[in-house]
Design brief:
The chain is of the alpha+beta class. It contains two helices and ten strands; from the N terminus they run αβββββββββαβ. Strand 2 and strand 3 form a beta hairpin.
């Protein structure tokens, strides 16, 4: 009986490890919560500090060789394209977080080897929320992808759309966090 219980314990522990869920969280943004002014863009009529939020993740699937983070506002009035606020890829598989403020244009605070794509503000790095006045709450989707490649096959200067395409083509799993902001 003791051997059977030990075997069942090992079996269940293995199942739990396999069933771990890939999760993305932030100490700065509650799921579905309002994004604080500290993280809002500074410019285009917005007066935030444009600091990138901290992000943490757990439960990456087996075979993950790198990560990519894409932050998008599908509510932006751009004729259907939405607005890209942050693109970071080639994040090492050993990384489990991005610290607050790491999204500067030079990316110096990002995990070593990470690359930032150009946002719809025209520059690399975090570009915080800044929806039009009176346009209602916008939904900012932070999506972290576990990738099957160590380096994303995207050319230097690739558009956000191309980066998104290549990320999706190499994705094993995705974890999401939603933040809201309106003015």
């Amino acid at each position: 009986m003791k051997t059977l219980l030990i075997s069942l314990g090992i079996c269940c522990a293995s199942f739990t490890a396999v069933a771990a869920e890939f999760r993305l969280s932030s100490p700065d943004i509650a799921p579905g919560g309002t994004i604080a002014n500290k993280f809002v863009y500074k410019g285009f009529g917005c007066s935030g500090e444009n600091v990138s939020p901290a992000l943490n993740w757990t439960g990456a699937p087996a075979g993950t060789r790198s990560f990519a983070l894409l932050v998008h506002d599908a509510d932006a009035p751009t004729g259907g394209a939405g607005w890209w606020h942050w693109l970071v890829y080639n994040i090492p598989a050993s990384a489990t977080k991005i610290v607050q403020g790491a999204g500067t244009a030079d990316g110096a605070g990002l995990p070593a080897g990470s690359v930032q794509g150009r946002t719809d503000f025209g520059t690399p790095g975090w570009g915080g929320p800044c929806p039009p006045v009176g346009h209602g709450q916008h939904h900012y989707r932070f999506t972290l992808y576990a990738l099957k490649v160590e380096k994303l096959p995207a050319p230097e200067g690739a558009t956000a759309a191309l980066i998104g395409y290549v990320v999706n083509d190499n994705s094993l799993a995705a974890a999401r966090l939603l933040g809201r902001y309106g003015r």
